[in-house]
């Protein structure tokens, strides 16, 4: 989506079923990058439904403002929307200062901001590769460092990096995103080792294909049908709320032994998904578009 496009209005869960006590995050503050849309919007919502104060950041101020209004109306919680490009350290420093001014601390950081598109490696420009590395991998480093320095170093906390499973099998047309997410997974272990003694746990949640998201609209390649869903071991796509519940678990006492690890939250789809670049190349050379090709 270009930043000039009409903003897709996000909606909240109509009938959320609580797994944890509804006040389990009361008194906590979460800073969520990419919280204005998609999976991270729903993570924000579920945290707020459990009493958490939230800060959501993205480049498009209108988008995060609209999201925050929707979230506050649905949950009755607090959500501060700020414009930040995670590639720009000064913008992050200013935003974290503003969040600290308003809430006094940050207990939970979710690094969800990301960019992606389907692109065969031999057609990828230097700038295309760099752009995704900078948003995903550098962005995760930049925001984690600032939040650690300004709050978690003294107060402890939980960092959840939203990654993917693309790099495990060298997923076709995903060299940029897979490389970036692999870097984040490594960074997660480094952070867990160095920041553990300050009471900080750092983990990755790696979603598989998640329904009703920009990621699936961009990468689904028009292939989501019953047959596709049946190819996934649990027989269905993931839902945004599935990912939100996993993230919520990682903020609770039940996950206190978890750090430096990746939770694959994909219903087993990475084990069975098709990844045949030879076949895709044939389809593309026969004139199929990337969005129509059965990948
Ligand atoms: C090839 C492309 C491209 C495409 C952009 N580029 N789109 N190359 N195919 N479809 C190239 C451009 O030509 C340019 O290179 C370079 O990338 C930077 O493009 P910009 O538009 O200048 O970048 P920017 O404005 O910073 O926008 C970043 C973006 C954009 C990633 C390109 O799409 C964006 O803002 N995305 C955010 C939302 C998003 O992607 N959500 C999905 C996340 S899902 P040149 O050489 O021409 O200068 C996800 C799922 C993971 O991550 C796993 C799923 C299973
Ligand atoms: P999405 O709605 O497009 O979310 C991406 C968010 O990142 C947007 O809110 C965007 O807001 C923000 N963002 C992008 N570039 C940014 C930048 N430079 N600085 C700050 N914010 C930026 O996509 P999604 O599909 O829900 O994906 C969310 C996360 O899940 C991503 O990390 C993605 O890689 C991961 N994931 C998704 C799937 C899936 O099936 N959807 C699968 C695996 C992993 P602005 O445009 O306003 O900046």
Question: What are the defining features of this structure?
Answer:
Rossmann fold; 13% strand; single chain; 295 residues; alpha/beta; binds NADP nicotinamide-adenine-dinucleotide phosphate; 7-stranded parallel sheet; globular; binds hexanoyl-coenzyme A
The run of helices and strands is: EHEHEHEHEHEHHHEHH
CATH superfamily: NAD(P)-binding Rossmann-like Domain
Q: In terms of per-residue confidence, which ranges show pLDDT below 50 for 5 or more consecutive residues?
A: none
Helix content: 40-55%
**Class from secondary-structure proportions:** alpha/beta
Please report the number of helical segments.
Answer: 10
Strand order of the largest sheet: 3-2-1-4-5-6-7
Ends apart, CA distance between termini: 21 Å
Number of strands: 7
The total tally of domains equals 1
CATH topology: Rossmann fold
At the first level of CATH, what is the class? Alpha Beta
Largest sheet: 7 strands, parallel
Bound molecules: hexanoyl-coenzyme A, NADP nicotinamide-adenine-dinucleotide phosphate
Question: Judging by the overall fold, what is the CATH architecture?
Answer: 3-Layer(aba) Sandwich
Strand content: 5-15%
Shape: globular
- Quaternary state, please? single chain
């Amino acid at each position: 989506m270009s930043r000039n496009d009409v903003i897709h209005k996000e909606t909240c869960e109509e009938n959320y079923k609580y797994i944890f006590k509804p006040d389990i995050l009361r008194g906590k503050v979460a800073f969520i990058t990419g919280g204005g849309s998609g999976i991270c919007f729903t993570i924000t919502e579920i945290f707020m439904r459990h009493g958490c104060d939230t800060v959501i950041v993205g480049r498009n101020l209108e988008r995060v403002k609209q999201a925050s209004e929707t979230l506050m109306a649905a949950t009755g919680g607090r959500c501060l929307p700020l414009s930040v490009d995670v590639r720009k350290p000064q913008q992050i420093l200013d935003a974290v200062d503003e969040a600290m001014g308003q809430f006094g601390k940050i207990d939970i950081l979710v690094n969800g901001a990301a960019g992606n598109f389907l692109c065969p490696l031999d057609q990828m420009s230097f700038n295309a590769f760099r752009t995704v590395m900078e948003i995903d991998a550098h962005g995760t480093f930049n925001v984690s460092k600032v939040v650690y320095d300004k709050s978690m170093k003294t107060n402890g906390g939980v960092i959840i990096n939203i990654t993917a499973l693309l790099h495990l099998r060298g997923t076709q047309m995903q060299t940029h995103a897979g490389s970036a997410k692999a870097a984040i997974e490594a960074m997660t272990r480094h952070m867990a080792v160095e920041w553990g003694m300050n009471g900080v746990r750092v983990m990755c949640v790696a979603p598989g294909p998640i329904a009703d998201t920009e990621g699936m609209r961009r990468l689904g390649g028009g292939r989501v049908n019953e047959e596709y869903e049946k190819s996934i071991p649990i027989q269905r796509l993931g839902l945004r709320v599935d990912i939100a519940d996993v993230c919520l678990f990682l903020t609770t006492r039940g996950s206190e032994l978890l750090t430096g690890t990746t939770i694959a939250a994909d219903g087993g789809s990475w084990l069975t998904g098709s990844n045949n670049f030879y076949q895709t190349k044939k389809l593309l050379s026969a004139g199929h578009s990337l969005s129509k090709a059965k990948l």
